[in-house]
User: What shape does this take?
Amino acid sequence: MEYVIIGNGVASQSAIKAIRESDQKNRIIVISDESYISYSRPLISYFLGNQVKRKSISHLNEKFYEKNDVELILNNKAVKIDLKAQKVLLEDGKKIHFDKVLIAVGGKPIIPEIKGIQSAGVFNLLKLSDAEGISQYLKEKRVRKAVVIGGGLIGLKTTEALMELGIEVTIIELADRILSASLNKKASNIVEKALKNDNCHLYFNNTVKEIKQKRGRVNEIVLSSDEKILTDLVIISIGVRPNGDLVKDMPIKHKNGIIVNQYMETNVQNIFAAGDCCAAKDLFAEKNRLIAIWPIAVKQGRIAGYNLSSKKTLYPGGFPMNSVELCGIPVMSVGMSDPKNIDCEIFEEFKPNKSIYKKMIIRDNQLKGFILVGDIDRAGIYTGLIRNAINISSIKNKLLKNNFGLLNLPETYRKDLITEKEVSINVY
Amino acid sequence: MRKIRIQEEYCMGCRLCEIHCITQHSKNKNIIKTYKGTYSKPLSRVVVEEKGYISFALQCRHCEDAPCLDACITGAMYRDDKTGAILCNEDKCIGCWMCIMVCPFGAISRNLQGGKIVSKCDLCGNEDIPVCVKNCPNEAIVLEGK
Assistant: This one.
């Protein structure tokens, strides 16, 4: 039997480990269009900013593939899955036979239609090759100023990296605040203030309508407000969408991600999907949802691996969560962090001069989400409350008190946690 | 696999576990020098919670299905082959705090002295009994497993 895994990220890695737990015999073939062993994409910006060395960007050692008896095909893109012939077609014409497939192809950056976007000096930052390309460009050209288009998580991490390198950054954001997908204005403002203090320029409610070049490389951008900004480098970080290239002409159901059931299987038998390319069970929504974060890719990959090797395992569902430090300020958002629904009860704490903001979102007597800026100590306790759907009606007023800890939780839940009985510690 | 079991009914909140944890993880491992010396003390990896008459000492549970292992984006968090303990390779930690976000026990802390890395129980590495367990006067924390 042959397992074919398309994609070489952490979902793929996780699946390999899971398969090999019970099946050391059958072949596992991994196909990647990149030229590296599996690496951590979240680390790309740290690598760019010289905070992580090139050799540390993968936590796999090279022996991983050997130890797990995996055949790794690099630099070759899977372009089609031929269901009838049971073969995966590669870019160079090779055909790989499969019995079961895991599609773990991750995401693709959204490229906006901006005049001049093809200029030299305009980059994405999603893959390792992007980071290496930018590093090379920085070595060859004198880059003093950069423009980052998009003030989401990737845009901000990119900004941090560039500022680490001594480059002056301007962020152009369409919404009225940075991190608009996970933070509200009060929380964003704290980080925005810190960015401005570090000489970062922010433009909101604005977009780039043209990228101009001079002597063959980027030198200026024009905003939709007509303002012009000189720049030596442009990074596009508007967003990432699930890579649906493989499945677009196939009978595999996909909409904002490849749809999978609770066993990570698509509507086509023996074809599974995991990670940033798929939409799986969301713990709190009725529909499936793409949640493109590292721990979910790890979990989904593992569960897909178990199911691929016939160890039927349910995926319990996940919810979004992110933690990052920007300008020395920790920022965490978990679950339903910015609900537009008025049906929620909100508890807030705002101490802007201490760069602290905290928000708890409660609905149906359960914690559904939270935002923490500045003080994130023991935040996982809250995440556990969300995951285990604990009734917190008796303690909702105490959630934000100082030194909130396990002793403030409902007693039975706390005792179960401490004696490790039955509660789910698996928070995603 | 070694684990530390909590018996909260025997905890008096004396915090000797914290003191010994800090001493054990200091450079000189000497209680007087650690507390009176000029270097800043390491963080305690055991959290003592106290409310009214209830108290208990909690450290990393070294979970079988550890959420922090999955959440770590650098591979700094890893499981020790011999003891089964979850350890953090401080050289790899970049202080993203993902592990803090997912630990339902709140057993991981931020170590802001020097660089930015996490701090958590390491079952005292080469000691045969973790020092918190060894020095608890009332067996409020006991060692289980090998």
Observations:
- The radius of gyration of chain A is 23 Å.
